[in-house]
Design a protein that fits this description.
MetI-like fold, 14 helices
Length: 279
């Protein structure tokens, strides 16, 4: 009994230590936002000598022509449709793979899974040339359209596995009551599928919100920059970098993601851990 308690306490201690190591950069970034530039470069203390809010004020106005209000609007305009299209399209495709047996569905499913093994670097040039020929550059269509056509096999596979854990007897009972395939999806399966769909929303929101390379490739106008490019732009507008302003805006930029994660943490964990109905 004593040994078990000792091992449990040791595991808690290790988890706490690892958690502190992982969260320390965020803590440092938060307090650095309240320091002066000289204090960030020279001082070794974690806490600022005096809390200075000027980094948030000056950082929000950015270069002056565009403020972070514009960059937040651009980010939401980029992220929200992408996430909604991803959830809808991937759920429909996963429903088809999980609940319907048609000629060649195993081959198509294996082909879909095989695309997860293709390195993203291989696709950069073909996608750029395709979007250029379609006239989609310098806009958000290169993000919206792949999401609309379910070009995210990881999410499809996740929802297929979740759907396979839901008893088919629910579908059969709904058919007896006169429901068609679409009604079964909307009225029967979607309420059960909610944890998996929310985890897809969280993953896609974080990945799209933090994406730097793809907006850098497809978006040319500063007026359409999302937050990821706006933060990088702060390093280029002056010879001397105002790190307190950059840290302040970085804190503001990640705040929506932190709030979203803690609000939906229960569904996120359930969506990842569950493979079907409980009980």
């Amino acid at each position: 009994m004593i040994k078990k308690r000792f091992l449990r306490g040791l595991s808690y201690l290790m988890i706490t230590a690892i958690g502190i190591i992982m969260i320390y950069p965020l803590i440092w970034m938060f307090f650095a936002a309240f320091k002066t530039n000289n204090e960030i470069n020279l001082a070794t203390s974690l806490l600022p000598a005096q809390f200075d809010w000027s980094g948030f004020v000056r950082g929000w106005h950015a270069s002056g022509q565009y403020t972070f209000t514009d960059f937040f609007k651009n980010t939401f305009l980029l992220v929200v449709p992408t996430v909604l299209f991803t959830v809808v399209s991937c759920t429909i495709v996963a429903y088809g793979f999980a609940r319907f047996s048609f000629k060649g569905h195993k081959i198509l499913f294996a082909l879909m899974l095989s695309t997860m093994m293709v390195p993203n670097a291989v696709l950069i040039i073909p996608r750029y040339l395709l979007f250029r020929d379609l006239g989609w550059l310098n806009g958000y269509l290169p993000f919206w359209m792949p999401a609309l056509f379910a070009c995210y096999p990881f999410f499809i596979y996740q929802e297929v596995q979740f759907l396979r854990g839901i008893p088919t007897e629910l579908d059969e009972a709904a058919k007896i009551d006169g429901c068609n395939s679409f009604q079964i999806l909307v009225q029967i399966l979607l309420p059960v599928l909610k944890p998996s769909m929310i985890s897809v929303c969280i993953f896609q929101t974080i990945w799209t919100w933090n994406d730097f390379m793809n907006p850098l490739i497809y978006i040319n106008s500063v007026s359409k920059y999302p937050l990821s490019l706006a933060l990088r732009m702060g390093l280029d507008v002056a010879a001397s970098t105002n790190w307190n302003e950059i840290m302040a805006m970085a804190c503001v930029s990640i705040l929506p993601l932190v709030i979203m994660f803690f609000c939906f943490q229960k569904y996120f964990v359930e969506g990842i851990a569950s493979s079907g109905l409980k009980g």
